[in-house]
């Protein structure tokens, strides 16, 4: 009888391990393939040569809790837009200078952000919950001030996958959101 019980426990243990590994396979970065294909919207009426990212709005408490989130988001968004070579200039807005007729302003507001800490992910695993981020963006024609697009974009990770990746999908969330928004801007910007 003892031999039978140990065999059942052994098999049960292996089944639990297999289920854990299978459940963990959904993790990784929030952006895996070309996300520009995920947005099915009509393109803007005209092509813009310059894209300027305005100062990101973020609640003081969120900024205090996640001091590098805005920089990670901005760097990722700007580098992804620059990498596509679709625009003559991609940069942060530095002042209220005069804009030419082909400048697109990107206004971002972080509505919510939750990033599970590495220690919480280590000690509690998937039970620590999901990391998520919601950002409202407005695409504005700099010459007229007209809002061309207004959208709330969200991303969240798989908590089981975050355990499997050692929490890297938690910490990369702001950068992933920058890539998602860059993909959205590219999806609605006409190439010619």
The major sheet is characterized as: 6 strands, mixed
What value does the average pLDDT take?
A: 82
Provide the low-confidence segments as ranges.
22-36
**Can you say what the CATH homologous superfamily is?**
ABC-type transport auxiliary lipoprotein component
Question: Which band does the percent of strand residues land in?
Answer: 15-25%
- CATH structural fold name: Rossmann fold
Domain unit count: 1
Radius of gyration, whole Å: 21 Å
What sequence of helices (H) and strands (E) makes up the elements? HEEHHEEHEEHHH
**Backbone shape:** elongated
CATH class equals Alpha Beta
Number of strands: 6
Any overview of this molecule?
With 192 residues, the chain is α/β, with parallel strands linked by helices. The chain has one domain: Rossmann fold. The protein is 40% helix and 22% strand. Strands 1, 2, 3, 4, 5 and 6 form a 6-stranded mixed beta sheet that branches. Strand 5 and strand 6 form a beta hairpin. Helix 3 runs parallel beside helix 7 (173-188). The longest helix is centred in the first third of the chain and has 23 residues, at 2-24.
Key phrases:
Rossmann fold, alpha/beta, elongated, 192 residues, 22% strand, 7 helices, six-stranded mixed sheet
């Amino acid at each position: 009888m003892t031999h039978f019980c140990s065999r059942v426990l052994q098999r049960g243990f292996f089944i639990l391990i297999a289920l854990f590994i299978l459940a963990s396979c959904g993790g990784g970065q929030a952006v895996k393939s070309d996300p520009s294909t995920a947005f099915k919207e009509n393109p803007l009426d005209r092509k813009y040569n310059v894209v300027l990212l305005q100062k990101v709005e973020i609640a003081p408490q969120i900024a205090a809790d996640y001091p590098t989130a805005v920089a990670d988001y901005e760097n990722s968004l700007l580098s992804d837009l620059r990498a596509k070579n679709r625009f003559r200039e991609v940069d942060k807005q530095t002042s209220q200078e005069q804009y030419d007729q082909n400048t697109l302003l990107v206004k971002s507001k972080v509505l919510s952000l939750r990033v599970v800490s590495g220690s919480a992910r280590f000690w509690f695993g998937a039970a620590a919950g999901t990391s998520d981020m919601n950002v409202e963006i407005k695409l504005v024609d700099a010459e007229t001030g007209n809002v061309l697009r207004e959208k709330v974009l969200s991303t969240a990770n798989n908590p089981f996958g975050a355990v499997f990746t050692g929490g890297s999908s938690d910490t990369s969330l702001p950068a992933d959101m920058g890539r998602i928004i860059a993909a959205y801007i590219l999806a609605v910007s006409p190439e010619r």
